[in-house]
C-alpha cells in the first residue's frame, strides 16, 4: 500500500512538472548574416537547435526555436534589430557578433533582464560590471593580446605598430595589446587606425604613414571581412617582403577556415604572416560537426556551444519549476506621436534566475570544456583560454606553437585540459622549446630585426656635451667641420655607425654654455625626456642613469680613482736601517749568532777550523755567523748535520738579502705622499676637503654611496686640479681629487708631481645613451665590439689621447711599508726547527759515545745503563765533548782490543785446568739431597 502511494505521488509530480514546462521556448540570435563570422555562426546555430530538439534528454518535451536578426554590420541597424527581437519575448539572445552593438544592446538586456550569450564580441570592456547580463561564450581580446605580446617578446622585439579598425572592437583590442606589451617590456610606437569600410586608397595612406616609422612589426586587428584588404594594400606598397613582421589576430584564421575571398587570393596575400586561432581540442563531436558543414571556423564552434549552454540553462531553469513570464516595464513608455512602440517591450521576470543557470554551465562541447568564470570587473567569460599560433605558408597554415592562459607563455605542448594533464612529465626539449621555426615574409627562416631607421626624413638629434677642458674627448670642432663637433668619443660613434647595415642620418647638437663643462646627468635626462634621440660623449654608465635611458656597450673602461700630491722622500745617513723594523733587526741578528753557535757545536769535534783557544773559537763563531750574510764564510763544514743546518740558513739569508735590497731601493727612489692619504679608507676617515670635476657623477657617488658630507666637497675644473692640490687644505686647496680614470690619466701625463693612490673603487665605463628600448643601442653595441676586435678602437684612442711627457708612473711604491717580522717568521721557524733537530741528533750521538767511552774505562756496565747522567762529572763530559772525534774513536777501539785480548787469555787458562777441576767438583746433579 505504501509503495502504491509513493508511485501515485511520483506520477502526480511528473505530471505537474510536465504540465509546467511550456511547449516551446524562443531564443534570439543577433549577427551579420553576410559576413565571415555570421555565415559560419548561422549554420552552427541552426545545427545546434536541431540537435537540441532531437535530443529528448535536453529540454524534455519543450521545443527550442531561434529567431535570427541581421544586424547588417551597422550599429544603428543592430540596435533596432535587437529591440525588435526583444518584442518577441525571447528568454535569451545568442550574440551579438559586433562589440559595438554589444555595448548598446547590453543596456537593453540589462533593463529587460534578458541574458546575452555572445560568441564573437571580444572587446575586453564588455567585462565591466556595467553589463551584468552580458555573458561571453568565447575568449576576449585581453587574452589574445597577451598571446601576441608573448610572440613579440619571444623574438626580442621592443616596438610594434598596431593597424586596426577604428571601432569599439579595434580600439579595445589595441588598448589590451598596449597593456600586454608593457608587461613584456615592449610598446606600441605607432597606432595606425583606419575607418570602418575604408577603401584601398585610405588603407594605403595609413600604411604609408606607419611605414615611415622605425618599427617593422605590424599587428593587424581587424574583422575577417576587411582585414584582407589591409594585406592587399601592404602588398601593393611592397611591405610584404623580407624584413617585415606581420602578426594578425584571430580574424585571419577565421577567414582562412571559412574559405572567404578565394583560396589563392587568401593565402597569396598573407604569406609568412603569423596569426592566432582560439584553441579547441580535437574530439569526435567537433569532427562530426565540421563534417556536416564545409565552412566552419572557430566562431561557429563557439556559437554552437553558446546555443547548447543556453539550452541547458533553460532546461535547468524549467526543471526547478521556473515559470516563463513577462511584464511591462514602467520606465519604458511611448512618446507622443512615436511609432517605435517601445511599450511593447517586456521584462523577463525570471531573467536573473536564468542568468545564474547560464553561469553554472559545465559540460563538454565541441570547443572542449564549457564553463564560465568571473573575468575582470564582474563579467562572465569562458575559463581556461588558449590559442594556437599559426604560420601561413604555401597554400595553407601550419601550427608552430600554443599560448595558454594557464602558463601565460608559449609552448609547443598542447595546452592542458585538466590539472592532471598539466602535471604530466614532458621531455626536456618539449619543456624548453617555445615555438617551432617560422617562415617569415620573403621566405626567410631567420627572425627579422623588427625595425629599420625611420624613413621620415628627420635625422637623429644627438646631444654632445660642450666641454671646455680636455676637449680631445668631445667638444665643439674648432676647425668648423660640417658636424660642428669633434673628439675621441665622436670618432668612435661615427666609426660604429659606419658599420651598421643601414644608413643613420644624425644631427649633432651641443649641450652646454661653453663656459664650464655641462652636467652629464642633465644631458641624460634630456634624452629620457625626448629632447634628444641620443647622447654621445664621455658619459659614464651609472645606476641612476640606466634607470631612464639605455646605454650601448662601453667603449672605454672607467672608474673613480684618487689623485694626491707627492714629494721626494728625503734620505739621511741612517736610511740603510729603514728597510727593517727594530724587531726585525733584533731577530735577524739573534738568529745569525744562534746559527753560528749551532754550526760550531756540530763542527767542533770534526772540523779543525772550529777548534783552538777559547778566544779563537768565539771569534770563529762571530765571524762565521755574519760572513754567511755575504756568502763569504771561509770555514768549511764537514759534518752532515752542520751542512744540513747551513743549507737551510743560507736559503733564509738569500731571502732576507733580496728583501732588504728591494725595500732599500724603494725607500731611496720612490716618492712619498705629502698628505698621508693612501687610499679610499684613509680618505674617508680624514676630514680634509676633496675635489671633483664639474659635471661629474663623483659628487653624488661620494655623498649618496660613501656618506661624504657636502661640506668636504669642492667643485673644480680640470685646469684647477694642479693648483688646488699644490695649495693643500691649509691654504684653501684640497687634499685629494676623485675623478674618472681617463681624465686622471690625461692629467697625470703632463703633471708629474701627482700620483693616483689606492685602487679604482668603482667599475664602469663610457657609453652612448639612447631612449629606452631603442633598437639602435643594441646594433651600436655590436658595432663597438667589432671596433674593439679589429683594432680600430685602439687606433682612434691613440689619435686623440696620446701620452704626455711624464713617464709611466706606478703607485705601487708610494708610501712603501718597512719590512717586519710577520713577513719572515715562517723562514725563521723552519731554520730554528732544523737547528734544534740537528742539536738533538748530535746530543744523542755524544751521549752514546760518552757511555761507551767510560764503560771502556772499567765502570760497571749495569751502572752505566741504569744512571747515564752520573757516569762522570760535568768536567768529564765537557772534556769528552772537547775531544776530537778521531781521538775518541781511537780510544774506544784500543780499549775494545784490550778487552778481547783479556777474554781470550782467560779462556785459554780455563781450558788448561778444565779436566781436573771437573773431577774435583762434582756437578750439582750428583750432590746428595
From TrEMBL:
Any single GO BP term: monoatomic ion transmembrane transport
Keyword Transmembrane helix in record: yes
Membrane topology: Multi-pass membrane protein
Keyword rRNA-binding: no
Primary subcellular site in the record, as a coarse category: membrane
Localization in the cell: Membrane
Residues annotated as signal peptide: 1-19
Residues covered by the Ionotropic glutamate receptor C-terminal domain: 459-803
Record's GO cellular component terms: membrane
Regions crossing the membrane: 583-602, 614-632, 644-670, 824-844
Coiled coil residues, start to end: none
Protein keywords: Disulfide bond, Glycoprotein, Ion channel, Ion transport, Ligand-gated ion channel, Membrane, Receptor, Signal, Transmembrane, Transmembrane helix, Transport
Domain of life: Eukaryota
SMART domains reported for this sequence: PBPe
Residue pairs linked by disulfide bridges in the UniProt entry: 752-806
Region: Disordered, residue numbers: 896-929
Biased composition (Low complexity): 908-929
Function: Glutamate-gated receptor that probably acts as non-selective cation channel.
Family the entry assigns: Belongs to the glutamate-gated ion channel (TC 1.A.10.1) family.
Protein name: Glutamate receptor
Phylogenetic lineage: Eukaryota, Viridiplantae, Streptophyta, Embryophyta, Tracheophyta
Amino acid at each position: 500500500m505504501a509503495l502504491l502511494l509513493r508511485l501515485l505521488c511520483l506520477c502526480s509530480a511528473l505530471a505537474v512538472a510536465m504540465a509546467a514546462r511550456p511547449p516551446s521556448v524562443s531564443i534570439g540570435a543577433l549577427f551579420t548574416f553576410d559576413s565571415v563570422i555570421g555565415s559560419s555562426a548561422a549554420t552552427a546555430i541552426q545545427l545546434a537547435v536541431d540537435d537540441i530538439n532531437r535530443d529528448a534528454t535536453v529540454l524534455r518535451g519543450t521545443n527550442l526555436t531561434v529567431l535570427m536578426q541581421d544586424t547588417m554590420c551597422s550599429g544603428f541597424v543592430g540596435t533596432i534589430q535587437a529591440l525588435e527581437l526583444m518584442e518577441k519575448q525571447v528568454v535569451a539572445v545568442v550574440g551579438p557578433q559586433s562589440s559595438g552593438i554589444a555595448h548598446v544592446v547590453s543596456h537593453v538586456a540589462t533593463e529587460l533582464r534578458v541574458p546575452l550569450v555572445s560568441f564573437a564580441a571580444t572587446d575586453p570592456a564588455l567585462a565591466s560590471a556595467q553589463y551584468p547580463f552580458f555573458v561571453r561564450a568565447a575568449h576576449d581580446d585581453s587574452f589574445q593580446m597577451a598571446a601576441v605580446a608573448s610572440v613579440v617578446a619571444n623574438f626580442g622585439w621592443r616596438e610594434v605598430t598596431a593597424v586596426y579598425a577604428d571601432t569599439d572592437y579595434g580600439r579595445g583590442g589595441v588598448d589590451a595589446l598596449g597593456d600586454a606589451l608593457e608587461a613584456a617590456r615592449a610598446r606600441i610606437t605607432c597606432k595606425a587606425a583606419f575607418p570602418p569600410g575604408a577603401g584601398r586608397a585610405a588603407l594605403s595612406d595609413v600604411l604609408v604613414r606607419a611605414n615611415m616609422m622605425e618599427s617593422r612589426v605590424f599587428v593587424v586587428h581587424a574583422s575577417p571581412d576587411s582585414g584582407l584588404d589591409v594585406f592587399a594594400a601592404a602588398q601593393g606598397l611592397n611591405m610584404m617582403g623580407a624584413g617585415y613582421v606581420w602578426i594578425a589576430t584571430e580574424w585571419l584564421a577565421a577567414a582562412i577556415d571559412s574559405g572567404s575571398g578565394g583560396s589563392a587570393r587568401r593565402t597569396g596575400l598573407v604569406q609568412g604572416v603569423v596569426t592566432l586561432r582560439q584553441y579547441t581540442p580535437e574530439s569526435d563531436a567537433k569532427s562530426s560537426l565540421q563534417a556536416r558543414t564545409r565552412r566552419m571556423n572557430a566562431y561557429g564552434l563557439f556559437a554552437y556551444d553558446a546555443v547548447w549552454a543556453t539550452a541547458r540553462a533553460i532546461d535547468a531553469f524549467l526543471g526547478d519549476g521556473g515559470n516563463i513570464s513577462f511584464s511591462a516595464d514602467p520606465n519604458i513608455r511611448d512618446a507622443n506621436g512615436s511609432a517605435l512602440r517601445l511599450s511593447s517591450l517586456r521584462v523577463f521576470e525570471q531573467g536573473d534566475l536564468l542568468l545564474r543557470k547560464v553561469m553554472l554551465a559545465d559540460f563538454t562541447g565541441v570547443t572542449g570544456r564549457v564553463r564560465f568564470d568571473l573575468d575582470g570587473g564582474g563579467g562572465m567569460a569562458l575559463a581556461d583560454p588558449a590559442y594556437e599560433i599559426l604560420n601561413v605558408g604555401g597554400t595553407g597554415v601550419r601550427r608552430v606553437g600554443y599560448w595558454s592562459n594557464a602558463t601565460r607563455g608559449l609552448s609547443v605542448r598542447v595546452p592542458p585540459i585538466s590539472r592532471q594533464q598539466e602535471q604530466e612529465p614532458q621531455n626536456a626539449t618539449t619543456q624548453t622549446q617555445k615555438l617551432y621555426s617560422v617562415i617569415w615574409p620573403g621566405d626567410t627562416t631567420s627572425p627579422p630585426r623588427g625595425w629599420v631607421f625611420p624613413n621620415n626624413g628627420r635625422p637623429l638629434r644627438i646631444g654632445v656635451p660642450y666641454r671646455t677642458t680636455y676637449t680631445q674627448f668631445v667638444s665643439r670642432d674648432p676647425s668648423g667641420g660640417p658636424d660642428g663637433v669633434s673628439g675621441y668619443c665622436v670618432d668612435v660613434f661615427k666609426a660604429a655607425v659606419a658599420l651598421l647595415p643601414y644608413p643613420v642620418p644624425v644631427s649633432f647638437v651641443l649641450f652646454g654654455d661653453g663656459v664650464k663643462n655641462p652636467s652629464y646627468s642633465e644631458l641624460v635626462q634630456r634624452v629620457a625626456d625626448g629632447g634628444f634621440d641620443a647622447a654621445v660623449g664621455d658619459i659614464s654608465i651609472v645606476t641612476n642613469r640606466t634607470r631612464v635611458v639605455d646605454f650601448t656597450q662601453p667603449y672605454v673602461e672607467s672608474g673613480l680613482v684618487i689623485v694626491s700630491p707627492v714629494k721626494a722622500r728625503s734620505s739621511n745617513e741612517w736610511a740603510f736601517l729603514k728597510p727593517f723594523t727594530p724587531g726585525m733587526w733584533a731577530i735577524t741578528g739573534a738568529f745569525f749568532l744562534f746559527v753560528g753557535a749551532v754550526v760550531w757545536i756540530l763542527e767542533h769535534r770534526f772540523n779543525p777550523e772550529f777548534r783552538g783557544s777559547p778566544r779563537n773559537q768565539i771569534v770563529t763563531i762571530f765571524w762565521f755567523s755574519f760572513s754567511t750574510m755575504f756568502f763569504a764564510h771561509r770555514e768549511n763544514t764537514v759534518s752532515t748535520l752542520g751542512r744540513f743546518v747551513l743549507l737551510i740558513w743560507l736559503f733564509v739569508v738569500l731571502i732576507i738579502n733580496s728583501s732588504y735590497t728591494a725595500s732599500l731601493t724603494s725607500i731611496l727612489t720612490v716618492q712619498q705622499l705629502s698628505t698621508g692619504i693612501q687610499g679610499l679608507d684613509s680618505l674617508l676617515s680624514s676630514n680634509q676637503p676633496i675635489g671633483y670635476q664639474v659635471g661629474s657623477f663623483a659628487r653624488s657617488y661620494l655623498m649618496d654611496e660613501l656618506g661624504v658630507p657636502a661640506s668636504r666637497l669642492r667643485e673644480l675644473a680640470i685646469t684647477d686640479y694642479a693648483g688646488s692640490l699644490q695649495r693643500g687644505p691649509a691654504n684653501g686647496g684640497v687634499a685629494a681629487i676623485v675623478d674618472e680614470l681617463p681624465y686622471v690619466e690625461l692629467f697625470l701625463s703632463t703633471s708629474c708631481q701627482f700620483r693616483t693612490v689606492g685602487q679604482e673603487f668603482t667599475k664602469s665605463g663610457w657609453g652612448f645613451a639612447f631612449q629606452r628600448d631603442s633598437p639602435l643601442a643594441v646594433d651600436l653595441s655590436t658595432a663597438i665590439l667589432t671596433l674593439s676586435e679589429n683594432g680600430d678602437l685602439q687606433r682612434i684612442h691613440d689619435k686623440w689621447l696620446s701620452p704626455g711627457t711624464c713617464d709611466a708612473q706606478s703607485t705601487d711604491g708610494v708610501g712603501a711599508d718597512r719590512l717586519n717580522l710577520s713577513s719572515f717568521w715562517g723562514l725563521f721557524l723552519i731554520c730554528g726547527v732544523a737547528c734544534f733537530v740537528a742539536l738533538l741528533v748530535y746530543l744523542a750521538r755524544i751521549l752514546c759515545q760518552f757511555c761507551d767511552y767510560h764503560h771502556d774505562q772499567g765502570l760497571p756496565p749495569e751502572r752505566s745503563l741504569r744512571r747515564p747522567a752520573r757516569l762522570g762529572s760535568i768536567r768529564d763530559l765537557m772534556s769528552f765533548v772537547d775531544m776530537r772525534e778521531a781521538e775518541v774513536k781511537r780510544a774506544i777501539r784500543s780499549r775494545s782490543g784490550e778487552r778481547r785480548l783479556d777474554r781470550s787469555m782467560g779462556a785459554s787458562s780455563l781450558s788448561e785446568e778444565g779436566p781436573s777441576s771437573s773431577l774435583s767438583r762434582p756437578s750439582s746433579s750428583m750432590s746428595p739431597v
